[in-house]
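Memo to structure team: turn this sequence into structure tokens by end of day. - J.P.
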Amino acid sequence: MSIDDNPAPGTQHPARWRVLSVLLVTIFMSLVGVSIVNVALPSIQEGLGASRSDIQWVLSGYALTFGIVLVAAGRAGDIFGRGPIFIAGVVIFTVSSVAAGLAPDPVSLNIARFVQGIGSGLLNPQAIGMIQHYFQGVERGKAFGYFGTVVGLSVAVGPLLGGLLIELGGPENGWRWTFLVNLPVGITAVVLALRWFPRPLRNRRTPDAARLRSKDFDPIGALLLGLAVLTVLLPFVETRGSAWVWALLPVSAMLVVLWMLWERRYKASGYSPMVDLAIFRTSSFTNGALLISLYFTGMTSIFVLVALYMQQGQGYSALAAGTVGLPSAILGAVAANWGGRVVLRYGRTLVIAGMLCALAGLALSILVIQLSAAGMASEWWLLASLGLVGVGQGAVVTPNQTLTLAEVPLQYAGSSGGIMQTGQRIGTSVGIAMITAVAFAVLGMSNWAAAITAGFVVIGLIILLALAVAFHDLHRRQRHNAAVV
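Reply from structure team:
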């Protein structure tokens, strides 16, 4: 039975929890698909005879197309309906997963990964936009809490599931099942979306976008921003390429300026631009987007360094190394759920506490690594210290999402969510390239303990910058509240 998208004034939509369940199943699939691939790379290299460059593009190709389409996909959902774009993204992601699983050679695999990134980029902003649209107040925080829980669990389940599938399928073909496992999940998500999404979500524009025109999609703005994201990401993901790729960074800056000028002109012409730049005058959005971009620049490199340390530095298998992050992921999922429920009570203070908790876990991890190098402790104490990082992670990401988007107009829910995710993707790519470069530079002069410590120190400095933004936003909110009183 279909349900219209017109609940009584002052009430929330009766189908909202069913909509959320479909979103969570799909987000879980897309994120597990990312973390599974990380442990499948050696199997892919053996099974397809892939070169190191081929293997790099298995990761980089997905990251590029995912980052490029995020904002445009979010805006398309705002205008043409989030449900149809979401379903299209799931279909593209699922079909390309099957193509990747059946790939006969590295080129076919990488083409499938490019398309898979497009599918993921289409569906992710719609999920955030639909949570914004269908949930209000405390329930919105709870919904984002469940969202954060799924993110945490997917990070924990991915490496273990990947290791298990590779064990069952064998070193040459086990990697194929890490992609094919998406097929039943994707089919289930599409069937449930067609059955449970309210009618306007499935086959016409959302009510918030009813007044918008097709020209408001702003294809030139989408192209300029996509090229800007491509030129800033490419130097950091193509780390084995020639030095000329770094010349793209000033090109990216020029493209950003052109995009901003175009968006102003487009709005002055009477249309609704892809991103209304006035949204950056909303301090809660600007501060929150900057904070989370800095945070991802640092924190997402932790487990990259830990995997290198455990496998190359200590000689453990990929599956054993993957278990180091399991307590962190589970505690992060629990903290995200709790943080989503209490974020409106504690506000930005909760995010600050989360970052302090993560910094404490980072400092303890450095201590564990140094004591292990001195033969005074086991490296497996990282299970505990990184668990503290996970708690901090859950208290930062989900509450920040709620606080950042709280004052954003619903007609820009998709594109603003896309902006946040684009900042996270850029931060992740820049951070991993920069921090691993520092670690390997130190490794050339010293040992693994010193290298990972140096990387962790850089991460800590970046998190301190994010913490400064959080305190600035807290003080702004306190001044605003005092003025209102």
